[in-house]
Amino acid sequence: MLAKRIIPCLDVKDGTTVKGVQFVNFRNAGDPVELGKQYSDMGADELVYLDITASHEGRKTFTELVKRIAAEVSIPFTVGGGIHELSDVERLLAAGADKVSVNSSAIRRPELISEIARRFGVQECVCAIDARLEEDGTWRCYLNGGRIPTERTLFEWAHEAQERGAGEILFTSMNHDGSKQGFAIEALHRLHEELSIPIIASGGAGTKEHFLEVFEQAHVDAALAASVFHFNEIPMRELKNYLADNGICVRCV
Amino acid sequence: MKVAIVKYNAGNIYSVFCACRRLGYDPVITNDPEELRNADKVIFPGVGEARAAMDYLNETGLSDIIRNLKQPVLGICIGMQLMCRHSEEGDVDCLGIFDVPVERFRPADSSFKVPQMGWNTIRVQGLETGGEHRLFADVKDDSYVYYVHSYRVPVCDYTIAKTDYCGPYSAALHKDNFWATQFHPEKSGSVGEKILKNFLLF
I want to staple B44 with a disulfide (CB 3.0 to 4.6 A). Which of A33, A69, B30, B75 is the partner? Predict the structure, then answer.
């Protein structure tokens, strides 16, 4: 049976992880490769590395980093941030990334998803969507890490992304992100019901129970989180065992 | 020992290269017929689309070279599917090493997403470690390995391991000197490394 996936997300700037990471006895907390290996050993199913560097020089550093991750980490990893055109995708996949995640650039130019799917296959392209539930009840998509509102709404954009060849949808609820109050269950459940591609839940994880909820109630395929893992608030092994004890199919290492 | 990885127009080749390096091997990535024929082991990896890949293999003559290899060959994911008779993906005739068709997943309901993406189990056919099951020596039944695919090979005479997603299908095949896995051993953590190592030790 296909296992539900748990995915730590690492923000990378100029080749080092940005958010502090507090593992005990862990000297190279800033090294994304060491961190990836640690997560892999602890049972993470996949990793997401987001490049938040703005400069051209930083992009080169990130590509070099991707090569090092590919050389040393034996589980799949997705890279995102700063992917604007097919040549960016080509560069990152050639460096050993398994998938690329597109966000703002795909909303600005949806053809990018079609181009990636045609050239590299649907399984290579994750469409990340940041959306906020507005007062009028619509889930509005935002650009640039949630700074710029758009005319697009979550469900119609997710459908278009699927039609264009996205292999997965990674939905972050801006209302829930950072709150540690649980995932956006209703919206995630609707995405699961309406789409035929896998859904990754993001935003709101604070406790083990939140992960159980999102798998049991929203039926998503994967759940992603950052700080609860980086600060060891929820140890990966403990989380996997808890989910397994509660009847969720997960891979325990 | 010389390990050759077939270079063609499918992605993911660098990951296989890295996995071999982690195991202490120094593989070459090549489409040179002599280099492929003279290698001790050949890995035929890939992530891609069947028709585009077959067009490329036929145009470059790699089709005949792969079909006629005598040393142990391991096909991975699309590599395995290309070793079959025909693929529904792009309705294309493939290498025909395994006389079995490749079919698209047909989910009965929306709870099965396509592509299947993630960790699923392998169940080895019979538990003897001799013969074709050498590939899974020291690998526990129901171990998790990483899959990414929209098409699958049904259970057939060549099946040496099964898995289940919208029904049972082949996780691994074997015939003569040809082995193949639908999953990605190079992305399957320590279990995958064990399987890849088993192959490289053949």
Answer: B75
Cα–Cα distance between A248 and A250 in angstroms, integer? 6
Q: Say how many domains are in chain B.
A: 1
Is there a contact between A221 and B113 if contact means CB atoms under 8 Å apart?
yes
**Residue ranges per structural domain of chain A:** 5-245
Encode pLDDT of B63-83 as tens digits.
Answer: 999 999 999 999 999 999 999
With an 8 Å Cβ cutoff, is A197 touching chain B? Answer: yes
Question: Would you state the CATH architecture of domain A5-245?
Answer: Alpha-Beta Barrel (3.20)
Report pLDDT digits (tens) over A45-71.
Answer: 999 999 988 777 778 889 999 999 999
Please report the ipTM that was assigned to this predicted complex: 0.92
Query: What residue of A is the nearest CA neighbor of B165?
Result: A1
- B115 contacts in chain A (CB < 8 Å): 122-123, 167, 197-198
Return the active site residues of B. Answer: 77, 184, 186
Q: Which chain B residues contact residue A168 at CB under 8 A?
A: 117
Are residues B18 and A95, on separate chains, in Cβ contact within 8 Å?
A: no
pTM score, two decimals? 0.94
